[in-house]
Amino acid sequence: MNPSKLLTSRDLDLEAYIQTLLNQLQFEPNISPAELEQVWIDKIETLILTEMQGTVLLKKIQPLIPLMVKKKIEGNPIKTVSVEPVYEDDRQLVLKYKTCFDAFLDSPFASFKTLNKHTLGNIKVKDYFILQYLITATCKRIRGDGNLQLGLSGASSIGKSVIFEGPLIANSHIYTAERGIGRFVAGNKPILLMNDICVHKLVYSDDIDTFKNICRGEVATAKTHGSTCPIKPIFVFYTSNTRLFNHIFKPTNIKEIGRPYLNHVEKGKRSKTIEEINSIRNRFIELFSFAPPPHLDIALNYPKSGTFQPIHLILGTFSRIVTILKQYNKTDFTFPMLYIYTFTFLFQYIALFEEMFCDVRYKDDIINMARDYLDDLHFNNLIKLL
Fold first, then answer.
1. What is residue 54's three-state secondary structure?
2. Over the Cα atoms of the chain, what is R_g?
3. Residue 362's closest CA among 372, 350, 375?
4. Among positive and negative, which fits the CA dihedral 50, 53, 58, 59?
5. Is it the case that residue 80 has pLDDT exceeding 60?
6. For the residues 102-122, what does the mean pLDDT come to?
7. How far apart are CA 28 and CA 149, in angstroms?
């Protein structure tokens, strides 16, 4: 049966009349489809009232107007289009990343805190943070390595996402704080990224014991549907607008530096003992910054489109990592995996660094340092990568 036969001639006349009015309307630039739909409905209703000088016809055909307007807009040839990003040379992006990374880490507005001074050994807290961040981005974790995990706290729009989260995101399992199961099941992802989390949840979560085991690199299990599964060793990195630690800056002529920035976990409706709170703090280094680096030109040094990729982080921090290792020897490290991870990274990417920058200055230094730091087994395994 022809569906049109279900319509009366009066129905067809009304539809044709609305179509005549629609044909008088023009698509408008710089307006969303939803806004355009409402504009057209208003215009058609106004035309009906003007032409017929009454509301009787409008009331009869009013239910048809939104349907026909939406149909016409959906057939609009002006649709979203694919736009090519601005492509930049990788070498240029590596240099940009180096500029951004160094400016953020060396900013007078940045503070590094940890409670676990024993694990630091004789390594400066900033240097430990840099080594561990590079390790997090490039290595698979070994169970029981003893390494501290990382947190990044600070005001919005200061570079946390662009500089630090962007290079990690592809290899990360994104943690969700919503109720449910499987939040720690990362599959083959080597990083647990806790993006924009409230640090209060780190301390007061029902999963706190599991979370502490994950941070220590110890055996842990996660709930799944009707069962449990073991959690592979995984690095942890959180970003937040709230603070796990107190951060106090030395007084200067900048008033924001002169005041303390207190933590967000010691007070609240569900306050815990300081020992319980410190059991989480003992597993982290937190970097806090209350403002963007003062001399970083964002327009000049951020990617023109997209984000920084792991390779930009790897090569952009390469020379700084070598410089840090030169300042210490193996006895300065409480746990050896920190420098074993680091040398594994250096041997893996030294050829790529030399190729991009035509710079062969670091190879001999890396090999000589590795002989001093590593046992024969690790050194012989790494030398095969060259």
1. coil
2. 30
3. 350
4. positive
5. no
6. 95
7. 53
Query: Nearest 5°: CA angle at 266, between 265 and 270?
Result: 80
- What ranges in the chain are assigned the alpha helix state H? 9-23, 33-52, 56-61, 64-74, 90-105, 117-120, 125-138, 200-204, 208-216, 255-258, 274-281, 298-301, 310-326, 337-357, 362-373, 376-383
Residue type, 107: S
Which of helix, strand or coil describes residue 187? coil
Identify the band that residue 225 occupies on the pLDDT scale cut at 50, 70 and 90: low
Q: Exposed/middle/buried for 75, CB within 10 Å: 0-12, 13-18, 19+?
A: exposed
Residues 161 and 308: their CA atoms lie apart, in Å, by 10
CA angle 120, 184, 314 (to 5 degrees): 50
- Give buried/exposed letters for 29-48 (b at 16+ CB in 10 A, else e): eeeeeeebbeebbeebbebb
- In DSSP terms, 191 is beta-bridged to 172, 235
Better-predicted residue by pLDDT, 204 or 271 = 204
Within 10 Å of residue 105's Cβ, how many Cβ atoms? 20
Average pLDDT for the chain:
85
How crowded is the C-beta side of 122, counted as CA atoms within 13 Å? Answer: 8
Give the closest residue to 133 by CA, choosing from 331, 6, 310, 349: 310
Question: Quick check: 109 and 140 in contact, CB under 8 A?
Answer: no
Give tens-digit pLDDT for 27-60: 766 667 777 788 888 887 777 777 665 566 667 7
Q: Is the pLDDT of residue 224 over 80?
A: no
Query: Taking the domains of the chain in order of start, what are their residue ranges?
Result: 11-74, 90-379
